[in-house]
Write a structure and sequence with these properties.
five-stranded parallel β-sheet; globular
């Protein structure tokens, strides 16, 4: 069937693009700057070269309108805080002394000043820095970055569209500043913020912007009538400005819902909507709202968050329907391409046929331009592309990788009993305390220890053939011995082996499970200069052989203290992978859970009495709409229990979560039925401990007292103060003492001192406890 040509040629565009460069040049330049090896001018030059390269690649692919302002040294929400002058008081002197160093101080903190809190960007694995606002916040416009990058693109001959975080989303993402009442609502500052946005828009217009994109992803979440009224007021006022560019309001990550008619009626010139599976319903809602007469529609029909090829025929059908609902339809991805790697063409170790199923940022821009041509000129213009696309989709659907009868038979045989421990927690905890003999306020770490230069060199030497497998393993054993020796001397109660053999907490397991593919260059930004390579969960999952037992048992042989077995949970294995989209997520989670269950049982059989199954992604994967929470949490918690419920009562199951808001999933945390949970709490000043107490959480918990995402070394007094806050919510017999997260990204000098201070704080607080408690 031939798609009807649009009245005017459909244009290809994207909302944003990966920042790092093909070889993570930005990461290297920024970290070099922090270490004093790169000066500010060189860092800025590297950034400018990366921006130029991105715009050139987009233009050569056929993208008509390139984004500007989406580039960031650290985080685009932090950039927005700078743009509107929302610099916390504790950082103002640093920003005044040097804008770049002050910017990084807000992001990372200094030894004397804490950074901004960090949390997940909606339901992705990207982290943003949370704005801190209060009733006394004074906003001031600083459009220098946005204007400069716009002018760069114009000077190079591109058609740019500046991208800003919208004012409503910015305020809804913010939190009350320290010292401000917890019930303060940043959205009450909207009338104060809008004139600042008006000034920025005027500056961009004066600099030559025809269009400006304002991102409002917060509007795809459940919003109150007051919040929807605020959005209506914001875009009524911004739309009424005389001195501005045309406005494109972009939503993504889901269905806009009740906010759609609000934006459709506003005096803005365009809307960008998600029409992929995550945005299911936007098409029907748009039709019900009467379409967008007189407006531009940017249709996100290419999935910007996953790496599977687009179904051209399905997308063209959607686009053809949209032609009757807006004056002009352009084609884009569903969100910024920040969330996918750069180029699948760089992957040389993946089977060429399987590689044809993959689309990273570069391939997605090509898909967008193909669809734009097909929409404009009819499907006859893309006959070859359609035929190749059909063949690749059929190849994937029929591949043996995607259907293993043995795996499917095992998941089909799961019973309710498989997901229940043999005894309730109240009975298990008695057995565990007798078995482990731990003191009150037991100390531990989350799992990983610093990944030193020596470890990275050893891996490189193994890959290059400079050492053999035996030589590599001796280096790993040396590292484990050093890590255990330090922990014993420091006085830590439950030890870890430090994970020196692991490259990443998901990738390490993915490389040992069938059904997963590993990439060599598939880097994606998690936060700041932290990049990860999510594996590709492409087929049915099974565990051919034990994955961690050998190294955990070796570590346990070196000490009398318990050594935790360390695994990554099924939800996180999905969330931090590019997961298959051809079956329900719950079914995939069950497959992973059964593979992990085998590993948990083997660890126990080999003498491991404490096993930690990390689920930091449990909250981040929570659907953005409340109506979808129950179904997700049912399979998510079931998969965790399925992985862990097969052990004896005296085996202690731990889990770990970090850098998300946990208040709305405390019941789900309870439903995991873990014996101990450790959570991020240092930056939020023990908020999660209070949330657990308010819920009546009955198990043991370790709210973190050491923020490992900052180079700051917490003092004994600081850690002790946080512990005292924790004890206000959690009784001493159920409180653990630990860092916020693993120590992989930290250096040994700061790690040693920080953990020694942590142990000293625990001893100090133990001494303060009543005699009967101690």
């Amino acid at each position: 069937m031939t798609a009807k040509p649009a009245a005017a040629a459909a244009r290809a565009t994207v909302y944003g693009y990966p920042r790092q460069g093909q070889n993570r040049e930005l990461k290297k330049a920024i970290e070099g700057y922090w270490k004093g090896r790169v000066d500010a001018d060189t860092l800025r030059q590297t950034a400018a070269e990366l921006r130029r390269g991105t715009w050139q690649q987009l233009a050569e692919a056929g993208v008509h309108e390139v984004p500007t302002g989406d580039f960031s040294y650290y985080d685009h929400v932090l950039d927005t805080s700078v743009m509107v002058g929302a610099v916390p008081e504790r950082h103002r002197d640093a920003v005044a002394a040097d804008a770049l160093d002050g910017y990084f101080a807000m992001a990372r903190g200094t030894q004397d000043v804490a950074p901004l809190e960090m949390t997940k960007w909606f339901d992705t694995n990207y982290h943003y820095l949370v704005p801190e606002l209060g009733p006394d916040t004074v906003f001031t416009a600083d459009s220098a970055k946005q204007v400069a990058e716009l002018k760069e693109a114009l000077a190079l001959g591109y058609t740019p569209r500046p991208v800003l975080v919208g004012p409503v989303t910015y305020l809804l993402l913010a939190k009350a500043a320290p010292g401000v009442a917890a019930d303060f609502e940043p959205l009450t500052l909207l009338d104060r913020l809008l004139p600042v946005y008006a000034e920025v828009l005027a500056d961009l217009r004066a600099a030559g912007a025809e269009w400006v994109q304002l991102d409002e992803p917060a509007l795809v979440q459940d919003r109150t009538p007051a919040e929807l009224n605020a959005a209506a007021r914001a875009y009524r006022e911004l739309g009424a400005l005389a001195d501005r560019s045309k406005l494109l309001v972009a939503s993504y990550f889901g269905r806009l819902g009740e906010a759609l008619p609000v934006l459709a009626k506003s005096p803005v010139e365009g809307l960008a909507l998600d029409f992929t599976e995550s945005g299911a319903g936007n098409l029907a809602d748009l039709a019900a709202a009467g379409g967008l007469p007189g407006k531009r529609l940017v249709a996100g029909v290419v999935n910007g968050r996953n790496i599977w090829i687009n179904d051209y025929e399905k997308s063209l059908a959607t686009l053809g329907t949209l032609l009757g609902l807006a004056d002009h339809v352009d084609v884009s991805a569903s969100c910024s391409l920040l969330h996918v790697p750069l180029d699948a063409g760089a992957e040389r170790d993946i089977d060429p046929q399987i590689a044809r199923w993959l689309a990273f940022a570069k391939q997605k821009t090509e898909e967008i331009t193909v669809l734009a041509r097909g929409l404009s000129a009819g499907t006859e213009a893309i006959t070859a592309e359609l035929a190749a696309n059909r063949a690749d989709l059929a190849s994937r659907a029929g591949a043996a990788l995607t259907h293993d009868p043995a795996v499917r038979a095992r998941t089909a045989a799961i019973t309710d009993a498989d997901g229940r421990r043999s005894q309730p927690y109240a009975e298990r905890t008695v057995a565990q305390r007798a078995h482990l003999g731990l003191p009150l306020l037991p100390t531990t770490t989350i799992g990983s220890f610093p990944q030193t230069t020596e470890l990275r060199t050893a891996r490189a030497d193994l890959r290059a053939g400079r050492i053999d497998e035996a030589g590599y393993e001796e280096r790993i054993k040396d590292e484990i011995r050093e890590v255990l020796s330090f922990q014993e001397k420091a006085g830590i109660d439950v030890l870890v082996h430090g994970e020196p053999e692991r490259n990443d907490m998901v990738q390490y397991f993915a490389e040992q499970l069938t059904g997963y593919l590993a990439t060599q260059h598939g880097w994606v930004q998690s936060y700041g200069t932290r990049y990860v390579r999510p594996p590709v969960l492409a087929g049915d999952i099974s565990r051919p052989e034990p994955m961690t037992v050998r190294w955990t048992a070796y570590a346990q042989s070196l000490t009398e203290r318990p050594v935790k077995g360390m695994l990554t949970g099924p939800v996180t294995m999905l969330a931090w992978s590019f997961v298959r989209d051809d079956q329900p997520l719950g079914e995939t989670a069950r497959q992973v859970a059964l593979a992990l269950r085998d590993e948990v049982n083997d660890l126990e059989a080999n003498g491991t009495s404490v096993i930690q199954v990390d689920e930091p992604a449990l909250r981040e994967t929570l659907p953005l709409r409340a109506a979808e929470h129950a179904a997700y949490l049912e399979w998510a918690t079931e998969s965790f229990r399925l992985a862990t419920a097969g052990v004896r009562p005296d085996t202690q199951i731990h889990t770990h979560m970090c850098y998300a808001e946990f208040g709305d999933i405390v019941q789900a945390i309870d439903d995991l039925d873990a014996d101990v949970i450790s959570l991020e709490a240092a930056r939020s000043h023990m908020q999660v401990a209070r949330e657990l107490a308010a819920h009546g959480y009955p198990r043991e918990a370790g709210p973190g007292v050491y923020d490992i995402h900052s180079p700051r070394i917490p003092s004994t007094e600081e850690a002790a103060a946080l512990l005292r806050k924790g004890l206000e919510a959690i009784p001493a017999e159920r409180l653990w003492v630990n860092p916020d997260c693993g120590l992989k990204t930290r250096g040994w000098p700061e790690t040693r001192t920080s953990l020694e201070n942590l142990v000293a704080a625990a001893r100090e607080i133990r001494a303060e406890l009543p005699t009967e408690a101690a």
